[in-house]
Amino acid sequence: MFEYSLSKENPDAGILKEAPKDYSPRVVFGIRPCDARAFQLDDCNFETDTIKDPWWVKRREATTLVGLGCNTPCSTCFCTSVGTGPFDATGLDALMTDVGDGFVFQAVTEKGKAFVAAMGSGETVSPALKEEAESLKKAAEEAWDPVPCGVHRAEPDPGPFQCVLLGRGAVSRASTAAPARSSVHLLVFRHSGRSAPGEGCRMRLWDSCMFPLFTFHGSGHNPRSQKLQRVRQRFMHKLKYYPEKYKNGVACVGCGRCVKFCPVNIDIRHVARLMSTTCICRHNFSFPFTRLGAAGGKSPEGQLRRGWLLNMEG
Asked: Distance between CA 183 and CA 210 in Å, rounded?
């Protein structure tokens, strides 16, 4: 973002100056439609009618997104439940469909038309090929059952989040795998070795609200020091606070990566169901437990202590 110098010999010492940036045209080729949709969700934070982040806007304008539709979506995906889909071209400049022996290109925006024209090769899509592409799209969109992702209760109690957390470890890895994230941290680095002494820069990096240092105040206070508080904030932001503020759907594109990569098997689809209904455990934890991978261990206390996965559905 900025660079500075603290050297006494520098007449601009102590003054932040914008660092040089590269806004040359670029193409993101083969991006999935859900990932492109995530850019639009983040636009609500960086490009509005009243506030425009100049660096975000310029990079977005210089970037052409050429997407690749998902012929065979993963079992963890649920993009059709959050307003997008495996062939959704909403956030793309051009969309490709894999038809086996080639790709069908669909230009969506002016940037997409310019990209397709610049390729300079290819043939006109026949009616039969167009019908094949449409059938692939229809089959992919019908691959899942709908997932309830809207939270309609005024303020879900902490019960579902307690159920999610019992016996489970950190989920920071899963939260950083998701494309729709609005957590940003400003960091100041003092350079050493690679530049003149006393010089440094201020950088902006993607972060995760699941890390305990994300909300750590300079005063030493942390309003979300407990894992339960951070998990609650993560899902409340995605499924309730964001849609209430922006009226733009939930802050999730249904890519399923957090489900796939979560090391402790937290499933946002299951969490959404818990948040939308009354927690079946009634907070007394008097429901069956399921041990992963082996039999035995009848004691609920022992299972909790060893970190077994709670069977919330029976």
From this structure: 10
| 39-47 contact pairs (CB < 8 A, 24+) | 39/65, 39/91, 40/90, 40/91, 41/180, 41/182, 41/242, 41/248, 41/251, 41/253, 42/180, 42/181, 42/182, 44/246, 44/248, 45/182
Task: Determine the pLDDT at residue 158.
Answer: 55
Residues 6+ apart with CB under 8 A from 65: 27, 28, 31, 36, 39, 91, 92, 93, 94
* Burial of 109: CB neighbours in 10 Å, binned 0-12, 13-18, 19+: middle
For the full predicted model, state whether its pTM sits above 0.90: no
Give the Cα separation of 19 and 286 in Å (integer). Answer: 58
In DSSP notation, 202-260 reads: EEEEE--TTSTTTT--TTS--TT-SHHHHHHHHHHIIIIIHHHHH-S--S-----HHHH
pLDDT number for residue 28: 96
DSSP state of 124: P
Nearest to 1 by CA among 206, 203, 205: 203
Residue-range domain boundaries for the chain: 2-141, 159-306
Q: What pLDDT is stored for residue 168 in this prediction?
A: 44
User: 307: closest CA among 169, 191, 194?
Assistant: 169
Q: Average pLDDT across each block of 10 residues of the chain; the chain has 314 residues. List them in order.
A: 85 88 94 93 88 92 96 90 91 94 92 91 83 90 70 53 49 55 55 63 81 87 89 88 87 90 86 70 36 36 32 33
Question: DSSP character for 289?
Answer: B
At residue 155, the pLDDT reads: 54
- At residue 294, the pLDDT reads 34
Alpha-helical regions (H) of the chain:
33-46, 54-62, 110-119, 127-141, 159-165, 172-177, 227-236, 242-246, 257-261, 268-276, 300-306
